[in-house]
Fold:
Amino acid sequence: MNTQIEHLRKVIEPLRQEILNHPVYPLIQSPEDLKLFMQYHVFAVWDFMSLLKTLQNNLTCTSVPWFVVGNAQTRYLINEIVAGEESDLDSNGHRMSHFELYLNAMKQSGADTTTIKTFIDALKQSESFERAFEASNTPQAAQEFVNYTFEVVNSQKPHVQSAVFTFGREDLIPGMFMSLIADIDRNFPDSISEFKYYLERHIEVDGDHHSHLALEMTAQLCGVNQVYWQEAEAAVIKGLHMRKALWDGVYEALMALRVEA
Structure:
């Protein structure tokens, strides 16, 4: 394994463990708790796709006329990940993106999709995140998470984008979802089959395939450039703090539900 990758993993491990052992997971004890969680988390599912497509745009040619961009290895790595994330199979064998899969899971569970749909519609019309957040009344923690993702998207630094994508998403998600699915199985195993499928699919695909591709992509893009590795490390640390802050926001909202009850 690349020594720089191992160094970065060692640096972020304490923060990663905070996320994997966050108290929000065992707090999801009822269908209502899960619905609230999903209404926050769906924003991370959506902006993941924007980070993914930014990498594809930067590492391959996605315009016409076609020209050679980058090198064939990074093109292969990102295109392979995009194919799986943008056109995977649902539980019935139909092709769809993981975001669409998540929306279907929300609908099955009875979670409100109004906020995310209003946000996307408003963003299409206004091209302003501030206006879209206001129109949809997006939770503050979700706003801050999305804003950081797009700070990375707009950085114009593929090595930073890849590092955040790899260590803040692909390499983190399997362990994070294993923590979540254990509690869901214990509390209500049969009422949310689509959400369980989404989680299990991510554990299978990201843990077994995509995370390895993403690690190689980050190693390729950072290469032997120490400045790139330093920028990548700083961005990943901030990205993990933003994930923890998102989970903190969900935790506070869940606790508020209990006070109201």
User: Anything to note?
Assistant: Strands lie at 88-89, 95-96. The chain has twelve helices and two strands. The mean pLDDT is 91. The first helix runs from residue 3 to 20.
